Amino acid sequence: MANGSSSMDFNAVNSGLRRIADISVSAFKTAIENQNRMMNDFSGVLSGMGLSFPSVKGHKSDCGCGCCPPKEECPPRCIAKISRSAYSGEQIIVPFRVTNRCSGPKHYRVGVRELKDDTGASAPSQPILNKSAVDLDTGQSEMILMAINLKDFREGHSYETDIVLREKDINQNICFRLLVTGFFDVPTAYPHDENKYKSHFQSWQSHFYCDPVDKDRTEGNLSVSHPTQ
Predict the structure, then answer these.
(1) Which of 57, 150, 189, 221 has the fewest CB atoms within 10 Å, i.e. the most exposed one?
(2) How many structural domains is the chain composed of?
(3) H-helix or E-strand containing 37?
(4) 162: closest CA among 173, 151, 152?
């Protein structure tokens, strides 16, 4: 009888301890949730006032302890931009310069992605680079040329691609955009009537003369084709 009573008391103690532990954990969890909710409320009020909530030392958002993963830093989408306008059928050369501003020599591979128009279709012909790599000491620059034959390119459309510089693992892009304009945009010349400019006495009111016409200069040294009659 005594042993049974002792056993029941022991079970009751264990049960009570478990309940106390459960209550403590639940209360602690509720307290943490309430604290976080209160901090969020305070942060919202301060943000509305144009103030920021002070960070608490040792809080998980504080990375001063060195336990947080390093922040990733990516290069910008374009380290340079080139825009050109040209007519359909032209052959254009696009120069650009690569300069090493880092400490120590650098080797960069150079390539160009597929040139596509504003509908996503591939261009009739693709750009060609005159160099596939450059080796640069600190402060050194090198010129690279990109050639494009614009035969069959559509007027009024734009074309885009990336010229890619790569040292080891990261692509760094020179963003290129080409606008193919129509021949309605070409400059127009309007010749004057040459009879108005011949050297002769103009009238009794004026003694103005045009400069004498140099036939050797205007005809003999011009490499032009005269229109057929």
Answers:
(1) 189
(2) 2
(3) helix 2-48
(4) 173
Residue matched to tokens 């002792």: 6
Q: What is the pLDDT along the chain (229 residues), one digit of tens a residue?
A: 445 444 557 677 667 767 766 766 666 667 767 776 777 776 666 666 665 555 444 444 445 555 555 666 677 889 999 999 999 999 999 999 999 999 999 999 999 999 999 999 999 999 999 999 999 999 999 999 999 999 999 999 999 999 999 999 889 999 999 999 988 778 889 998 887 766 555 555 555 555 555 555 555 555 555 555 4
Residue 14: inside a domain: yes
Closest CA to 142 of 182, 188, 184, 95: 95
Distance separating alpha carbons of residues 167 and 190, to the nearest angstrom? 54
**The total number of residues written for the chain in this structure:** 229
CB 172 within 8 A of CB 164: yes
H or E element at residue 25: helix 2-48
Range of the domain at 29: 2-54
Is residue 229, in this structure, part of any structural domain at all?
Answer: no
Residues 88 and 175 in one domain: yes
Sheet containing 128-129: which strands, arranged edge to edge? 91-99, 141-149, 128-129
In a domain, 163, yes or no: yes
41 and 100 inside one domain? no
